[in-house]
Design brief:
By secondary structure, the protein is an alpha/beta fold. Helices cover 25% and strands 28% of the residues. This is Persulfide dioxygenase ETHE1, mitochondrial.
Length: 238
């Protein structure tokens, strides 16, 4: 890992969501990826303890299983700007597009559009640390579902292979969720062991169309709030 990078991986147990903090050791500027509303106070406290100044709060997509913590963090830490992919149609302070670069101090991450789970999906790549943050597009030995919220298995297959698994094989992959307590994987591992994405595109589409998954538990609460930066519930509670 890049020695100039401060890195933390955090966990929210209800939705099994991973949140990531990346900070520049030299300038102390930081970003946070996929914060959760309920754990925003924890994240703000940790950032303060680490002496980090949070500049950007990023989402990998419009989540359906939890309310984003970007709105809550903006309340807790003045000056923070929220970030989301423009094509998803959600609100944020800064709308990004494929190929954009987000800087924090002397560090930067590249934005790669990886739609297919949702239209709003992106992967954030930190080339200095040889790391990719894939959200729900690519999971550990799995991938995001494609049966709701603009899902398309053909599009997801192409996104993952063209934008994530095309990275050098030693790049570490940090995902949006894991339900078995596994913290990370790699490009090489997923190219070899992912039971869905090692198949042909035709086989992958068949698998994804026959998963028969249950309706997401928090989608009716989470989706409307996440379209407005997680601030819908903040206003209701106020």
């Amino acid at each position: 890992m890049n020695r100039g990078l401060l890195f933390r991986q955090l966990f929210e147990k209800t939705s099994s969501t991973y949140t990531y903090i990346l900070g520049c050791q030299k300038t102390r500027e930081a970003i946070i990826i996929d914060p959760v509303k309920e754990t925003a106070p924890r994240d703000a406290k940790l950032l303060n303890e680490l002496g980090l100044s949070l500049r950007w709060a990023l989402n990998t997509h419009v989540h359906a299983d939890h309310i984003t913590g970007t709105g809550a963090l903006k309340q807790l830490i003045p000056g923070v700007k929220s970030v989301i992919y423009k094509a998803g149609g959600a609100r944020a302070d800064h709308l990004i597009e494929h190929g954009d670069v987000i800087q924090f101090g002397g560090e930067e991450i590249e934005v790669r559009a990886t739609p297919g789970h949702t239209n709003s999906c992106v992967t954030y790549v930190h080339h200095g640390g040889r790391m990719a943050f894939t959200g729900d597009a690519l999971l550990i030995r799995a991938c995001g579902r494609t049966d709701f919220q603009e899902g398309c298995p053909q599009r997801l297959y192409k996104s993952v292979w063209e934008q994530i698994l095309s990275l050098p094989e030693d790049y570490s992959i940090f995902v949006g969720h894991n339900y078995e307590g596994i913290e990370q994987t790699s490009v090489a591992e997923e190219k070899k062991f992912n039971p869905r994405l090692t198949k042909s595109e035709e086989e992958f589409v068949h698998i994804m169309k026959n998963l028969n998954l249950s309706y997401p538990k928090q989608i009716d609460r989470a989706l409307p709030a996440n379209l407005v930066d997680g601030e819908l519930e903040e206003k209701h509670e106020a």
